[in-house]
User: Fold this.
Amino acid sequence: MRLQSVPAAAGVTWVKQGFRIFARQPLAFSGMFAAFLFVVFVLTLLPVVGSLLLLALLPLGSLGFMIGTRDALQGRVPLPRAIVAPLRQGPDALRAMLFLGLIYAAASVAIITLAEWADGGALDELMRVLSEGKATPADVAQRLSEPGLFTGRMIRFGLAGVLSVPFWHAPALVHWGP
Assistant:
């Protein structure tokens, strides 16, 4: 495997190619996505542990869709089992994917913790008020004016974006790398 430098405009081409690949097997990719969402739903039912497992499994999920895309490019139907295929590549690959998932989960928890500290719980309070369905515009405006809310959101989005960039590629490099 050799990394290649490409111009930024190649991203538009990749997005177009992604839509073309999806169009070859829309039901299969939709089935993979539905299976992934089902697992997400089940994990969200488990208090605390489910959320941590979900975070740890996200790199595996993204790699599963890459494997499904490879299958579609090779004329095979991408199936939901592609999501767990990397776990069946032997103990070294399994250990590497688990380590990657643990790093991602730990970093995500650190980002969430830092953001909650910065906003003083303002985002949680805003979400609680909105979820009750009885919030008046004044209630929402009051929650939105909390001083730490903006800082907390910027920490969440900024650091989550920074964390996401290497984890878009890390699962593939771990799986297909030397």
Observations:
- The mean pLDDT is 91.
- The radius of gyration is 19 Å.
- The chain has seven helices and no strands.
